[in-house]
Amino acid sequence: MHIVVCIKQVPDSAQIRIHPVTNTIMRQGVPAIVNPYDMFALEEALRVRDRLGGGKVTVLTMGPPTAEAALRKSLSLGADDAVLLTDRLFAGSDTLATSFALSQAILRLSEQEPVDIVFTGKQTIDGDTAQVGPGIATRLNLNLLTYVAKIEKVDPEAGSIRVHRRAEGGVQVLEAPMPCLITLLEGVNTLRHGSMPDMFRAARTQITRWGREDAGIDDPTRIGLKGSPTVVTKVFAPKPTAEPATQLEVAGRSPADVAADLVERLFDDSGDLERLLLRQAG
Amino acid sequence: MNANTENARPKGRRFQLDPKFEAYKGVWVFVEQERGEVHPVSWELLGEGRKLADQLGAVLGAVILGGGEEEALADALEKACEEAIGFGADLVYLATGEVLADYRNETYTSALTDLVNTHKPEILMLGATTLGRDLAGSVATTLGTGLTADCTELDIDPETRSLMATRPTFGGSLLCTIQTLNYRPQMATVRPRVMAMPAVDPARSGEIVRSGFGMSEDDVLAKVLEFIPDEAREGAQLPYAEIIVSGGLGMGKPENFKLLFDLAGVLGAEVGASRPVIQAGWVEADRQVGQTGKTVRPRLYIAAGISGAVQHRVGMEGSDVIVAINSDPQAPIFDFATYGIVGDAVQIVPALTEAFRKRLAVTRAAS
Fold this sequence. Notes:
The complex is a heterodimer.
Chain A (H helix, E strand, L loop, with lengths): L1 E6 L1 E3 L5 E2 L6 E2 L5 E3 L1 H17 L3 E7 L5 H9 L4 E5 L9 H18 L4 E5 L10 H9 L2 E13 L4 E8 L2 E8 L2 E5 L11 H9 L3 E3 L19 E7 L9 E2 L7 H15 L1 H11 L1
Parallel strand pairs in A: 1-6, 1-8, 6-7, 7-13, 8-12, 9-12
Antiparallel strand pairs in A: 2-5, 3-4, 9-10, 10-11
Chain B lengths: L26 E5 L1 E2 L2 E2 L2 H16 L3 E7 L4 H16 L4 E6 L8 H15 L3 E5 L2 H14 L3 E2 L4 E4 L6 E7 L4 E7 L5 E5 L16 E6 L10 E7 L13 E5 L9 H11 L2 E4 L1 H5 L20 E5 L5 H7 L4 E6 L12 E4 L2 H22 L1
Parallel strand pairs in B: 1-4, 1-6, 4-5, 5-12, 6-11, 7-11, 14-15, 14-16, 16-17, 17-18
Antiparallel strand pairs in B: 2-3, 8-9, 9-10
């Protein structure tokens, strides 16, 4: 069983600051982390491997050379192998170009050992698009299983997998043949701690780096800006449209008085709201 | 992620639509239905699609996929077609087939891609639901076109007549406008509740274009073994809640969320939360309101102990009335809330519960 996990190194968005004058992102000092959603995917991949009592988990990322840190982290948790897809020509790739590059790399990995399952996180925290997983599956003609909450059964003999996936208004239980691509829902497992030997291995391993040609991409117009149909034409800060709040007097008043004042104002402003509340609470 | 977020449009690069795409005309909305029930985001999108189509002087089309043996389901699909017209569609493309009864990526991607290749719309919009996101990513890849996720604003570029899709980026701290200039259709997804629900006009007329989808069950690889419907009225209800009581770290500790549930009980409201609260594990993740959570637009939104960071703001600023309670008078939430109370949410919330309870009791007694 060969499992590939696609991960992404992202800036910790909680710590991003915007330059007040130029509206550009101030990246200095913003730590890079592994996209948190991807860690659930990695953990699930490791669990599938461990449950089957064997197999290989390869972690794949596309990014700058510094993205190596994300791969070392994965190795320290028990991934067997890691590949960094890095080339200046990949810069500026949108989701379509990214899914193309990753799918080509997965094809190469598959030549080494056929890939049965590709895992990705539900989405990234920097782009939030959730498009790259479906994109890879479509390009490689893998069965796409998104928002998977539970892997009920993996049957390598029959070459099939049974999963529970989150759908609108319920859970769909699906059985599909492998190879397949799974995007994993967050919070469905707890990330393990790395073992000492894995940590040493992660620190020492020479990470495989693939450039465009190593990944088997002959046509440079399919990656980077050239391979991206979407163009960012404008970046701007949200405009402060709203008026500031009407502040209720709080000095010298009890919470009960302030609360009564608020309820009074809400109902005076909008009789609709009172009717709605009566109906809702009814 | 659009890794090119920070790259402005390259200067001097000319944008010329390939002649093969010139035949692409009209705005389409994918109307999402499951077991006969249409997701309301589809109607919201038709409202937005109507505006875009009018700007372009183009036709607004709705696409409905479905099928199955049951008569009730067939009736529901017919009703969905009529409703789509009522919400603004000029044309409804209804494709039916036995394999379209349940959503599966393979069948829906194939059916929708076929329709696009046959009728050639210039814009295709889908709801950013679990189904819509699953489908949009595959369809865009199959068609080799651009797709912009989770748009908050859609407009037409008067110069190129192309779609300007604006979305928050970097956790909502910036907005970026993304265009697909050289490919068609231009695809976009929009989250539920981001666009307003349009008025329905039952008297509107439109045309229904029917087609069959020929794939047979033997050709489909993924099998649906079971569908387990959600039982509880959980956080999943958040986007369409009329009243929401939301809490942030200012609630002090997880136990204090009970105060919010008490208030919600009196108001018949849903309980939401900010991202830090979810990350701290105080309440379930599906209660998160904000850029990485749910977008809401209730009639009344009470934010207790929430600072109002951009990431939260983009998910709830469409609320009619916002009440903010925060001990920090400088908290950004006071910049856009309707009413502000500077004070400890842990004290104010129970007082509010009492005040609403009394007031509603009086009104009820009087009526």
